[in-house]
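Appendix B: complex inputs.
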Amino acid sequence: MNVRDLCLGYLSLREATGYEIKKDFEEGMFCHFMEASYGSIYPALSQLALEGMVTVREEEQSGKPDKKVYAITDAGVAMLKRSLNVLPARDKYKSEFLFMMLLQNHLPVHQRIIAMEKQMADLKADLMSIAECKQQGMTDPASEFVMGYGEAVLTAGVTFLKDNLAALHANTAKQAAE
Amino acid sequence: MNVRDLCLGYLSLREATGYEIKKDFEEGMFCHFMEASYGSIYPALSQLALEGMVTVREEEQSGKPDKKVYAITDAGVAMLKRSLNVLPARDKYKSEFLFMMLLQNHLPVHQRIIAMEKQMADLKADLMSIAECKQQGMTDPASEFVMGYGEAVLTAGVTFLKDNLAALHANTAKQAAE
DNA sequence: ACCGATATATATCGAACTGGAATATATTGG
DNA sequence: CCAATATATTCCAGTTCGATATATATCGGT
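Resulting structure:
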């Protein structure tokens, strides 16, 4: 699964520009489980166009730079199906936050609390993105499954952090009183 | 946060060889939130040694290839603390599984079920790793926090999948009966 | 007894990807 | 009226991945 497959998969749902794909990986539906940089998306789209997996339609826009709208072809759908025909690779989760927590002995307590609050804010921001997608009427079973999974996992993280922060605050308050 | 910092952080907990660091990122404590390849770990350790951030001790072993045990220096600890002095970057989560679920229209139902069962098995394997760490007596607050967070999030994923698989099976059974 | 698989241990390298800078313009907010 | 933000693409240096190579021990199966 490389960026090519990612773009192909996205374009099988709707036509889009490279910019829109990237934006949806940051915000929209995909924000909590997919990422790719412009430096990989644009070359992938160009190559897919050369191979006939997608078509390009250049749209002139007054003022703004021209945009290239990509759309998947039948050959592209066939290639996508072949890519999906293997079991998905194991999830990859990288968390500098958890790494920092594991090394908390090297840190003052207040910085640990700030990191935990940042983590909680990040998780909540992702939950907000999902809530927005729901409001904007993404009610097909596929989207609902993905959003439901995201909500379940993100909410569990928020709950864990909230409980731990509460315990930490209670502790520091107790120590201050002594 | 690059592989250098990762190695430095690991070595601040215990001395180790490159092989052991990689193994712990795959299994041990770190399995569910950190990854790095040999191709990045070994060069990072060599460079850190050149810079005096770690020391190397070559241990001959009868039969097995010599191993190079790395240990952090005071300069290394100081550098690590500087690295930890910035807020951690946002978590990165990549899931081919969720991508596949979003494109489930391109897939037959049985393959979707297989993917879901694989995902559940993967999550359970991570939970097992954490349970093993606990049994082997990692009871310091830092480890407990990280393991607790992992358990909370992984369990939420398992529960969501279990419920959805049950609903899916009930549905297909109903359709078969009609 | 022997073979294959797995585990220990390190090194190397091309391909892939990231993250940031560069470019150009319109709109929005203070 | 200026700064910031948004649209839209391109390029590149540096980082990392994933696979391969090398060498040996051990364990299980036949």
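Strands of chain A lie at 54-59, 67-72, 92-94.
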